[in-house]
Amino acid sequence: MGQKEMAAFLGHVARKTSCAYGVATGGPLAWGLCYNREMSPMQSYCDESWKYKNPCSPGAEYYGRGALPIYWNFNYGAAGEALKADLLNHPEYIEQNATLAFQAAIWRWMTPIKKKYKNIIYKSLSRFIKIIIHSL
Question: Can you give the pLDDT at residue 38?
Fold first, then answer.
């Protein structure tokens, strides 16, 4: 990763894990890395159409976890395969292990979902943010 890409990566990590102004104590330097999981998930993010490749584990919930949150059973399965961790059966590992959380964030950053984030950041920041939001 180059300096611009690292700055973009860390900026998105800070944005996704922020407590936001007024909640974090310690001023602006304490705003990022406050949360490591989705605080009020509205669903378990289990897509049964992936039951043959990445089946949902009984009782597991695939809501957003990590420095750049990943969602859905198929993303936990793919990340777990790439990182050699059983994330499909134990998605909670990401919120229990900071190293794994950042490995998953780097995996998400570097793995194409629609288009590679790193190829878009230099063209248009607004387009880049839209791709991240729509990939969740």
Answer: 86
The C-alpha atoms of residue 94 and residue 50 are separated, in whole angstroms, by 21
Residue ranges per domain, the chain?
3-134
pLDDT at 120 over 70: no
Nearest in space to 105 (alpha carbons), one of 8, 4, 30 = 8
Please determine, looking at this structure, whether the domain spanning 3-134 carries the CATH number 1.10.530.10.
Answer: yes
Counted residue by residue, the chain has a size of 136
**Model pLDDT for residues 74-89, shown as the tens digit of each residue:** 999 999 999 999 999 9
Q: Quick one: how many helices (H) and strands (E) in the chain?
A: 6, 0
The CA-atom distances, in angstroms, between 9 and each of 36, 54, 108, 128, 132 are: 16, 27, 10, 12, 12
Please state the pTM of the whole predicted model.
0.75
